Protein: STAS/SEC14 domain-containing protein
Amino acid sequence: MYQRLERGQGNVVAYEIGDSVTEEEVREILGQLREAVGEHGRIRLLVRMRGWPENATAALTERLRFAKDHFGDIDRYAVVGDHRLAEFLTEATDKVVDMELRHFDHSDEEAAWAWVGGS
Structure:
């Protein structure tokens, strides 16, 4: 289950990811992100997660293809979550990709919104 968050405006795209996300849902999200890149050129992304999705590897091939094609199109990527694995993967990925990527705890979500939307 996922929900696109209406608070995301302009080139800021935001989602909440639930306990589980299907391959079809991942494809929908990636399609929406491609549309946002097409419309805005470069985007900023905020993803709120509660826990860690059971099937976090859903549509892995499509996700890797998207990453290869569009990581350069994402200026800032905020991951808001309380799972240690999300924090670890965010910090590790930040060291090897050419975008600003940060992890925020749920208690710091407002700071995440300010960071992802700031200059």
Residues 23-40 form the longest helix (18 residues). The CA atoms of residues 1 and 21 lie 5 Å apart. Residues 2-117 form one domain. Strands lie at 2-4, 12-17, 43-49, 74-80, 100-104.
